[in-house]
Amino acid sequence: MGLKFLGIYPNTPDDGSPTIWQDEETGDLVIQSWKADEETVRQAQEVGSIPGHSTDVPDHETVIRLPANMLQFIPHLNSEVHGGNGGT
After folding, report:
1. Could you tell me if 28 and 22 are in contact, meaning their C-beta atoms sit under 8 angstroms apart?
2. What per-residue confidence (pLDDT) applies to 85?
3. What secondary structure, in 3-state letters, does 21-62 show?
4. Interval 58-68 mean pLDDT
5. pLDDT category of residue 78 using cuts at 50, 70 and 90
6. C-alpha to C-alpha distance for 50 and 12, rounded to whole angstroms
7. CA 30 from chain center: how many Å?
8. Tell me, what's the pLDDT at 5?
9. Cα angle: 5, vertex 28, 23; to 5 degrees
10. Which class for 34: exposed (0-12), middle (13-18), buried (19 or more C-beta within 10 A)?
């Protein structure tokens, strides 16, 4: 798997800043960012996603908080949603 660097938190003052890469083979995004605090995770669980889907976060996943100014680095291939129960 080859990763392509897409961007890092603008004007970052330290080594632990949010960073985004893209898997050149699959197009998947690999994101390093701040772990969401307990209150954010609780709010996400309250809001949920789709009816009947668990709001628990599995051990192999985490909830991250991606700063809004990092959205500029996410590639926009097209406006179609490809699966994933993207909602409305």
Report:
1. yes
2. 43
3. EEECCCCCEEEECEECCHHHHHHHHHHCCCCCCCCCCCCCCC
4. 91
5. low
6. 36
7. 8
8. 95
9. 45
10. middle
